[in-house]
């Protein structure tokens, strides 16, 4: 960078982490790791202490998401990207319809397109900065999209496609950067799945899904048929939703999990519920997002990337900068001052900032960030 900018210390946020995932981990979560060093870390995940931990996560999420009767919380290793493959193996019977409007919402569709035992998916494509939900498709047995597109800062509605229930189709929604930050009625889905490295302030490598009775029945039927002689579909144990659910009901995972991830997630789920659950968390994220959007709308050199106010995410905020203000230089200057992970999504290729405003981020730190950006731009 041509110039170095020293932001006055009294302007800096107390915590300068604004990542869109991995996101900020609270000090209390790290302290929970230390507290569990002798009772949880380095012990078997099939023994009571770790199973109690998993049980607490499942119970906490049932409360947080106000899970309807009959729905279940399942979890396993591999992250949300693994759940895409699980859905292809265990939930999509023949053909799925997708809403694709960014890097992550398109990746699940790519998995379905690559599965040799599925027909080519029907893709309803939206331009970056907008969303596109799948429409009623005559031969679809699953409808899939992302609640929040992490790459572009777009939030999409979560509601069943009209007519989908009557045709026996299920609804699969990726909540990875939305769960815990955006309001959701999970009864509008059959699988609402996510990883914990966003609003749940933990590390990646784990997937969690809120499953309807219909999804559970679908997985059992698909996997049973896959085991018949001459079947073209193979469901390996790691991608079996029924095996994951069987283990989840015992408060464990099929394979050995990262116990540290479980500890931090359990602490975060309790923290969110103790503060008021989904209502509190989503209001806090909305406040932080509003600070950024309002600042950008007042700015002479910045503006919100997502034009439709109703589609603007309250989890990941994307801000375009004027071409005369190189975002790379702004990001570098912020990093020199301890403010990190504000880069735009690389594949989007815009002169842009991207800011994670998950529940762990203090709204006052978001306000401080806007002042620091102004200071950097003025002094570059």
From TrEMBL:
It catalyses: 4-(phosphooxy)-L-threonine + 2-oxoglutarate = (R)-3-hydroxy-2-oxo-4-phosphooxybutanoate + L-glutamate; O-phospho-L-serine + 2-oxoglutarate = 3-phosphooxypyruvate + L-glutamate. Keywords: Amino-acid biosynthesis, Aminotransferase, Cytoplasm, Pyridoxal phosphate, Pyridoxine biosynthesis, Serine biosynthesis, Transferase. Pathway: Amino-acid biosynthesis; L-serine biosynthesis; L-serine from 3-phospho-D-glycerate: step 2/3. Its cofactor is pyridoxal 5'-phosphate. It comes from the Bacteria. InterPro entries: Aminotrans_V_dom, Pser_aminoTfrase, Pser_aminoTfrase_mycobac, PyrdxlP-dep_Trfase, PyrdxlP-dep_Trfase_major, PyrdxlP-dep_Trfase_small. Residues 123-344 form the Aminotransferase class V domain. Pfam families: Aminotran_5. Residues 1-20 are annotated as: Disordered. Its EC number is 2.6.1.52. SUPFAM superfamilies: PLP-dependent transferases. One of its GO terms (molecular function) is L-serine-pyruvate transaminase activity. GO terms for biological process: glycine biosynthetic process, by transamination of glyoxylate; L-serine biosynthetic process; pyridoxine biosynthetic process. It is an enzyme of class 2 (transferase). Catalyzes the reversible conversion of 3-phosphohydroxypyruvate to phosphoserine and of 3-hydroxy-2-oxo-4-phosphonooxybutanoate to phosphohydroxythreonine. Belongs to the class-V pyridoxal-phosphate-dependent aminotransferase family. SerC subfamily. This is phosphoserine transaminase. It comes from Bifidobacterium stellenboschense.
């Amino acid at each position: 960078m041509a110039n170095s900018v020293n932001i006055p210390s009294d302007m800096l946020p107390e915590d300068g982490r604004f990542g869109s995932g991995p996101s900020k981990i609270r000090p209390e979560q790290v302290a929970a790791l230390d507290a569990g060093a002798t009772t949880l870390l380095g012990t078997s995940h099939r023994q009571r202490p770790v199973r109690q931990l998993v049980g607490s996560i499942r119970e906490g999420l049932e409360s947080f998401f106000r899970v309807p009767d009959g729905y279940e919380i399942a979890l396993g290793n591999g992250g949300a990207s693994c759940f895409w493959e699980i859905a292809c193996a265990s939930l999509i019977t023949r053909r799925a319809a997708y809403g694709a409007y960014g890097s992550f919402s398109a990746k699940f569709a790519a998995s379905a397109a690559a599965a040799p035992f599925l027909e080519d998916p029907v893709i309803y494509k939206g331009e970056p900065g907008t969303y596109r939900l799948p429409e009623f498709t005559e031969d679809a047995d699953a409808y899939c999209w992302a609640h929040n597109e992490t790459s572009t800062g777009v939030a999409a509605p979560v509601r069943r496609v009209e007519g989908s229930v009557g045709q026996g189709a299920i609804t699969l929604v990726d909540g990875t950067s939305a769960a815990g930050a955006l309001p959701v009625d999970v009864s509008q889905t059959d699988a609402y799945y996510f990883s914990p490295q966003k609003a749940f302030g933990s590390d990646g490598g784990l997937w969690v899904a809120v499953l309807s009775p219909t999804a559970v029945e679908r997985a059992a039927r698909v996997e049973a048929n896959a085991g018949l002689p001459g079947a073209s579909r193979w469901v390996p144990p790691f991608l079996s939703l029924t095996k994951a659910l069987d283990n989840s009901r015992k408060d464990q995972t099929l394979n050995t999990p990262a116990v540290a991830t479980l500890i931090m997630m359990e602490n975060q789920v309790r923290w969110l519920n103790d503060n008021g659950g989904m209502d509190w968390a989503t209001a806090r994220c909305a406040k932080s997002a509003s600070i950024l959007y309002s600042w950008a709308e007042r700015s002479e050199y910045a503006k919100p990337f997502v034009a439709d106010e109703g589609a603007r995410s309250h989890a990941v905020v994307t801000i375009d900068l004027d071409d005369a203000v190189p975002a790379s230089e702004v990001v570098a200057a912020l990093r020199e001052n301890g403010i990190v992970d504000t880069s735009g999504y690389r594949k989007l290729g815009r002169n842009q900032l991207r800011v994670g405003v998950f529940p762990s981020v203090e709204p006052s730190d978001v306000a401080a960030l806007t002042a620091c950006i102004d200071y950097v731009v003025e002094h570059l």
